[in-house]
Amino acid sequence: xxxxxxxxxxxxxxxxxxxxxxxxxxxxxxxxxxxxxxxxxxxxxxxxxxxxxxxxxxxxxxxxxxxxxxxxxxxxxxxxxxxxxxxxxxxxxxxxxxxxxxxxxxxxxxxxxxxxxxxxxxxxxxxxxxxxxxxxxxxxxxxxxxxxxxxxxxxxxxxxxxxxxxxxxxxxxxxxxxxxxxx
Length: 183
Prior knowledge:
The protein has about 180 residues and is an alpha+beta fold. Helix content is about 50%, strand content about 15%. It has helices spanning about 1-15, 20-30, 35-50, 70-80, 90-100, 105-110, 120-125, 150-155, 170-180; strands at about 55-60, 60-65, 130-135, 145. The strands form 2 sheets. It has a two-stranded antiparallel ribbon. Strands 3-4 form a two-stranded antiparallel ribbon. Strand 3 (about 130-135) and strand 4 (about 145) form a beta hairpin. It is globular. It starts with a helix and ends with a helix. The relative contact order is 0.12.
C-alpha cells in the first residue's frame, strides 16, 4: 500500500509545473491522509531519490523535483538556450528588496546609490519575484515592495531566514543565482 502511495505522490509532484504544497497533496488524495502522514510519505520519497540524478526539494510553495547540482553541466551543454545568469543590477535590486523589505523604489535607489532601471523592476514583477504590499504613509504614498514565494522558489529557499548574512549578500546571491540556473 505504501509503495503505491509513494508512486502516486511521485507522479503528482513530477507532473506539476509548480511546487506542490502539502495542502494540495491532501486534496489530491481526497483527504485520506493528514498533513503528518503526507509529510512522512514525502520524506520516504526523498529517501528513495538518494543516489539518483534528481532530488525532491522543498521550497516556499511546496515540493518539486530538480536535477542535482552535480549534473547541471550536462544539462547546460544539452540545452544551451537555458536562461543565462541574472544581471548584477537585477541581483543587487532583488537582494536589496529581500534584505530591507518592505522597501520603496526610492529606498532602493538610496541604498544602491544609483537610479533603478525601471525595466529591471518590471522584470522582477513579471517573474512574480516581487509585489507591492501597501504604501508608506508619507507624501506621495510610495508603494512598498516585498519578495514573494516565487522569489524563494527561484533561489531554492523555504523562507527569508535562509538568506545569507547581509555583508555577503551580493556574493551569496550570485552563488544562489548560479545554483538556481542549474535547476
